[in-house]
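Predict the 3D structure for this chain.
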Amino acid sequence: MTDNRLLDLVDDRDFRTLFVEELGWNNPDRPDLTVEVDDETFMLQQVAGYKGLRIWHCPVLPPRKIQRQIDVLVGQENQERLVIFTNEQRQEWRWPRRAQLGSANAKLLVHEHIVGDRSTHLTQRLQAIELDFDEDLSLVALLDRMRDAFDHEAESASVAAARHMGTLYTELEACGVGEHDATLLLARLLFLLFGDDADMWKPEGLFEKYLGEHTTADNLHKDLQGLFEVLDTAEKKRTLPADSPYAPFRYINGGLFHDPLRLPPLNSAFREALIEACEFDWSIISPAVFGSMFQTVKSKEARRHGGEHYTTEENILKTIRPLFLDEYRDRLKRGWDDKAQLTKLHNELGRLRFLDPACGCGNFLIVAYRELRALELEILLRRRELDMVEAASKKVQRAQLTLDVTGDIKVTLDHFYGIEIEEWPARIAETAMLLVDHLANQKMAVEFGFAPDRLPIALAPTIHHANALHTDWASLIPPSGDVVILGNPPFNGGRTMSSGQKDDLTRVWGKSMNPNFDYVTGWYKKSLDYYGHHSGRWAFVSTNSVCQGEPTADLWQPILSAGWRCRYAHRSFQWTTEAQGGAAVHVSIIGFDRATTPRPKLWTYPEGGKGQPDVESVVCISPYLTPGPPILVRSRRRPLSQELTPATFGSMANDGNHLFLDQAEYESAQSDPVARKYIRRFVGARELMYDSPRWCIWMPEPDYSAIDASPLLRQVVSSVRDYRQQSKRGATQRLATMPYRFGEVRQPSTDYLGIPRHVGEHRRYFIVARFHSDVICGDANSLLPDPDGFLLGVLSSSMFIAWMRAIGGRLESRLRFSNTFTYNTFPLPMVSDRQRKEVVEAAAGVIFAREAHSGMSLAKLYDPVAMPDDLVEAHNILDNAIDKIFGRGDMSTESARQKILFQHYASLTGQETLI
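Done. Predicted structure below.
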């Protein structure tokens, strides 16, 4: 099937062949339909269908007002439908406009096709809904495919639009326009370009006509200033001659064109780029996607690469759907045939207020507003349908199909608030919200024939340009149970925070501040302070530190104590930053409320954060985003279990790498009998995992005669002394008096376990290894004295790695070992002599299985998808021995193991009442 084959069938109006034979849809199941509008009769033929979605063809092309009324009448018996109106030259396609497609761009859902046009996106839309021969797709999934096709068109348009803006910004830089004035100018131009193409004023293309006919390159800066002044002046206050080129422009208001703008003369390249931008269709952009991309326009690097980096709507919807949207859509479904319930739901939507206190370019607010307006439109449409049913039952000839419901709109821009620290994205947010409002109004016009006239602007969002952690949120909007807080605060950890950001956190948290808090926790504390005793709901995209590692307890304690519960959570997944070249960060999305319904939902992604998640409804979500009660785990100086001995870091050289020998130096040192006595095998994290050979000079106590007798030792000691003396750290300088030894010595005198600080998240087991005391353990590892192998068995078990995955901190997505947190808190019960013997024997079996594969490193042996069978079996025997220590219970999955672990931890720490 070729692209032209599909369009040829479209142009021939052979829709039965197109949908049934080429796209795999079902044959029609309804007879021809006759409807009457304004005393004129129209015949429609069903050409195909699929699971209740029917495609109807009307072989005439009436005006759009008549099309809309026909569509409404068809919809009385067929809610999901695609209606195609045609003549020999043109076609009008009215795609399904509810459920999954309810918030898509109206211009894409009701669009024109010109016969013979091969540049259309129609081919991609049709290919998106092609069904394989044996495919049994649900209707919801089919509509999702349609929505994806429409979203792709809008996203593609947004990419192209951002390129136009990038070109304009480049020319403004060349003309010497400052950042503040460039911000104002481009925001205003965006509004005008969009308004030209989106029927915001008549005639269409008014700004493009003005630009082409009434401006010159030399005077463009003055011409634009003159236009902006007119747009900011009410018609009654203008003193313009009748033939003024400014006369057709309407009063905009809303402050968009009010602030002073300083423009130097602009070059001809800027005017040419602006005229070229006018030729682009701005009405089909996604304000959310475009706004996010527009934020990168200032970056030369982003402009060079086209700027195709933005926060996807998919990720935004992961936040807003479970926070409020799914609940309201479910209520719409349950109240579908009940006008009273529909009215109650509509009134509740009108009471809601939304605050994004880190709004950036406003994309969370934009998507929330768009989806709520789409939901509101569905409510109004369903009420009209019920009115029609009621009218028919009373034998009224026909209910009125053209209704002015503009006065019934309850979801309005002034219900949306944002706080943004940077001016550029704050301006984008203000403008983009106006654009998405107009798109929502266009959807209303498609369905009802009327839409509110928003000019001059009287309703606008409040976007406050300030530091959210310095701002009293209640000064923007008083707290209440109707306020929803949401957003994506900055991704800054302790190492990447500026001193000012650290001061911000201290200011917000006060004495409750944990030094390991990430910056995002400031928004959590501000939310708690804002709501006070009020109910409400709030959610943030957050770095994983809020639910992993030692800081978790200090963050969640005040949340739980204030009566909030975790309403839903997306466990760790990859979130790509908007910055050009930005690496994917691993985040979680967590929502809170003070309700008891609905049941919390938990999304769990494959290890590594890529792929489709599993979702489950649970009784409770813990602070570590596992199913279970809100048990808090706190770091400890000594192990919680009496069966575990304390772990320490390995020895730290602090030597400028002078105490270490490479292969050539090691071989050369063999000829130095004095130095050879002080050479030891060294194992850091890499050496442990990959069995890489490495050696070091090990002289914990001084042997000055040996140093004097060995050229190698003299050179090493001299180099270490120089390195330490030149350090800026006083502690390191003091170590220069002992240049023969490691800076910190913690080497045990017995066999020990080497424990790497991090291990890959896909490993089935945490990897540790036993070493003789002659092998020096570096500080990239922790170590444990382990004379009999019992602790190797414990740390190599499925129970231990399950505990690490449940509570432990991570580096990106790799598991992090902490002696004070993941190890010292491991709730190992009391162990009998018999149980200990079983574990020791099983651990010996693991070592035996490893040694059976000589030449394979631990990294290779523990390949997540290629572990040797005998090693897997040895671990199974070990798991059986460890599992017996924890008693009876379901241990078939990692989640089940974690449930048992939390129960034991709660019992050992006085939190039994939470179980």
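Residues 302-310, 577-583 have pLDDT under 50 and may be disordered.
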